[in-house]
Amino acid sequence: MDIKLNQEPDMKKPLILVTNDDGIAARGIKTLIDVAKQLGDVIVVAPDSPQSGQGHAITLEQPLRLYKVDLFEGVEAYECSGTPVDCVKLAKNVLLKDRELNLCVSGINHGSNAAINILYSGTLSAAMEASLEGVPSIGFSFLNYSPRADFSACTGFAKALMKYVLQHGMSKGNLWNVNIPDLPADEIKGIKVCRQADARWVEEFVEATDPRGQKYYWLTGRFVNEDQAENTDIWALENGYISLVPSKHDLTNYEALDELQSLEILTS
Amino acid sequence: MDIKLNQEPDMKKPLILVTNDDGIAARGIKTLIDVAKQLGDVIVVAPDSPQSGQGHAITLEQPLRLYKVDLFEGVEAYECSGTPVDCVKLAKNVLLKDRELNLCVSGINHGSNAAINILYSGTLSAAMEASLEGVPSIGFSFLNYSPRADFSACTGFAKALMKYVLQHGMSKGNLWNVNIPDLPADEIKGIKVCRQADARWVEEFVEATDPRGQKYYWLTGRFVNEDQAENTDIWALENGYISLVPSKHDLTNYEALDELQSLEILTS
Questions:
Q1: Is domain B15-266 in CATH 3.30.200.20, yes or no?
Q2: Which residues form the Survival protein SurE-like phosphatase/nucleotidase domain (chains A, B) (predicted)?
Q3: What is the pLDDT of residue B2?
Q4: Chain A residues with CB inside 8 Å of B256's CB?
Q5: Does the beta-carbon distance from B210 to A250 stay under 8 Å?
Q6: In the beta sheet, which residues pair with residue B147?
Q7: Which residue positions of B form the known binding site for a divalent metal cation?
Q8: What is the mean pLDDT of residues A213-236?
Q9: Do B217 and A66 touch (CB under 8 A)?
Q10: For residue A110, with 0-12 CB atoms within 10 Å meaning exposed, 13-18 middle and 19 or more buried, which class applies?
């Protein structure tokens, strides 16, 4: 596998925000920081504890803490008590203020965020928050759930994609959802630009009783994909490709706008 | 204002799930339950405490509690310790199992969920979760933030829209984001089917020191809308209309798919 576009970005040293949802001590973010450092100045703001499944949650009812940490050589880094989206808001509005941010990268997530998982994922919601703030952003996920996962297959691809965005920008309101199959780098066939598969979770709550005799439910589930099209992220991943889904935060269903004009007859 | 489509739904008694993010004791959900009861059998599963800003968060690291409550006459109702999305998952997978759900309504939220607030809103995320499960769903919000808000202006419109969906269905993967201006019913000009305005929050964190001398940050913000187009939800609301944004959970940016095919040259 030969990564092209390997000239350095033709611009002043860019500023890159790195965040995630697995927490600042996770392996995945360390990998992403190491790549980002090769491309620009890096600031890290990440949750102080795992925040998987936090989606686009923000902290309204509680104060947030933000502490400087000395975890990554030569990199300004902060841990935050809030959600991934809180981290991006604090980075942009408290730490960076008027400094221009050229790219936000989130991850590398320990586990898939393909298909509808973009909605549940704190990793992708952080990237989406950056896109709301007008910052080009990429969420990276690796299809290996182990805290001890070896991310070395991800680095070349992550660097190439980040470089591409630093060189070409990204149109406003967009973000990329990038998932990387759990394969050695030389077995990865390349990058497929594709759509979000129409998959879903079939929930199977575990029902049990706590030590005080009270019933509880614990969320578990089975990921089901009946969308077999070859232009989907799930197909790409199952066939040895990295999936790249260009995504956006405008959720309007434009096709339905015209269909529903008749609803305006409700009014008179 | 004259609401048409006032014949009763031509079907067996439909089953309607009601949820929200302000918590089961909020006034807004009581209003929605009263309307839903006029249209079908109702089941309520709502958070036991306010969950504003929870977005699409789900509870992975903790057990969930689900307790039957006797709050709404003639209606089976449960309070849940989790997020709005957890409530929908529990309703669909634990309580209803194979029973067909014909509609999910969420709200009525105390405050706006127009424009990008669909992403932060637990109310809308609950509706989106139902849409992921194949259930037609509507999130309702009223532009009055008071816990003592008078929702009487909302009821006729909410009923008309729910009836419309029960009669006509909703195409798969869709949900409606409905916001209602804070006006007396007879001053509301009607319903506008529109797109999500490209607005944003300008964050202004309050920075202060806690009793132990530690610095904290508290999220606040100013909603800024530079998108003045007349086909947006913000325009509709500012001009006395109810906004209805047909929305979807497929976040793929289809316009960007073609543009980005060149990225596949990264691979060889």
A1: no
A2: 16-202
A3: 38
A4: 171, 174, 246, 248
A5: no
A6: none
A7: 21-22, 52, 109
A8: 93
A9: yes
A10: buried
What pLDDT, in 10s, does the model give residues A241-260?
A: 999 999 999 999 999 988 88
Q: What is the tally of helices (H) and strands (E) in chain B?
A: 7, 13
Q: Which helix (H) or strand (E) holds B179?
A: strand B174-180
Q: With contacts defined as CB-CB under 8 Å, which chain B residues touch A53?
A: 57-60
Share of chain A above pLDDT 70, in %: 94
Confidence at residue A265, expressed as pLDDT on a 0 to 100 scale: 55
Structure confidence at residue B47 (pLDDT): 97
What whole-number distance in Å separates Cα of residue B51 and Cα of residue A58?
A: 10
CB contacts, 8 Å: B264 with chain A:
190-193
Q: Is A37 exposed, middle or buried (0-12, 13-18, 19+ CB in 10 A)?
A: middle
Residue A107 confidence (pLDDT) above 60: yes
pLDDT at B5: 46
ipTM for the complex? 0.90
**Domain spanning A15-200+228-252: CATH superfamily:** Survival protein SurE-like phosphatase/nucleotidase (3.40.1210.10)
Which DSSP state fits A91? I
User: What is the gyration radius of the CA atoms in chain B, in angstroms?
Assistant: 20
CB contact under 8 A, A57 and B58: no
Domain residue limits, chain B: 15-266
